[in-house]
Amino acid sequence: MTQPVVNFSAGPSLLPAAIMPHIQADLVNFKGSGMGVAEISHRSPLWESRLAEIFGLLRTALRVPDSHEVLLIQGGATLQFSMVPLNLASPGARVDYLVTGRWAENAAKEAARVGRDPHVAARAFDAIPRDLDLSPDAAYVHYTSNNTVIGTEFFHIPEVGATPLVCDASSDILSRPFDIGAHALVYAGAQKNLGPAGLCVVIVRRDLLDGAADPVPTLLRYGVYAKNDSMYNTPPVLAIHMLGHVLSWVLEQGGAEEMERRAIARSSLLYSAIDALPHFQGNVATPDRSRMNVTFRLTDEALEERFIHEAEAAGFCFIRGHRSTGGVRVSLYNAMPLHDVQRFVHFMEDFSARA
Fold this sequence. Notes:
Elements (H helix, E strand, L loop, with lengths): L5 E2 L12 H9 L16 H18 L5 E7 L1 H13 L5 E6 L2 H12 L3 E7 L17 E4 L1 E2 L4 E2 L11 E4 L16 E5 L9 E7 L16 H6 L9 H17 L1 H22 L3 E3 L10 E6 L2 H13 L2 E2 L10 E4 L6 H17 L1
Parallel strand pairs: 1-13, 3-4, 3-5, 5-8, 8-9
Antiparallel strand pairs: 2-10, 6-7, 9-10, 11-12, 12-14
Helix pairs in contact: 2-6, 3-4, 6-7, 7-9
């Protein structure tokens, strides 16, 4: 490449540049052990000490209350589509879902697949629903805080009364202050704001840990992870270690408050260009525009293809929209520098002038 690459991937996404030299060094010699971090036993005191440190970083960065347990589970957020209903609801029980995108829809389908009764309490893809048709007997209400495909985001916590509230926060976790205590369970795949793919952070209220009944398999029970410090089986050591580096970086930068300030600056800059420039148009209701995944179209399909092609040739990678929607998608997770967004906006301005 003759110019710097800007990674706008929706996930796996870019990691903070500042942590990469530390990870590279740890892959060769972790804490002076003479072994790489991916080579050490997960039962060694060296790893147990690092794991305890990472749990502490998670509690600090996310302000996890003592009422909640933090778990580290393989399988990404998609596995939680099954684990949530298996642990929080009895077979045949009604469970409510706010379907605001592809992944929320998949979560509801998975609840049905494991024998629960999902009820769509709201359905809207290009705006965040305010009117909810909640079931009085629901075991929980599930929502997805950020829609990565269409590009909407919840900036409020849904009002669900005393019903346990579950949030899939995979794509906006740690991008702003977030009230964990208002939720019965929060889960987040790591590959957007927390680290590499293959790991999911699950934060669950302690009184719900042992809700899974037979015949739920051992590794699908939250209580098993809690009782074994998330090491009932061999954990993804490298992914967890990298999560720790990302958390340290976030805290050094100023925590969730600073991440929110940066997210607003990045997304506002890009949305302003979309609204002001000819040939560009946004996809979703303005108040609900995601700060993490900015989606838009061009006024002509041929022009859109040309824009994507020229942008990628200029080093702006992974901007083609999700295969189910088309268009353009620019993902602006925590590690994205503002100057890269500024470069992209300059490219948009130049393209608009030439189109």
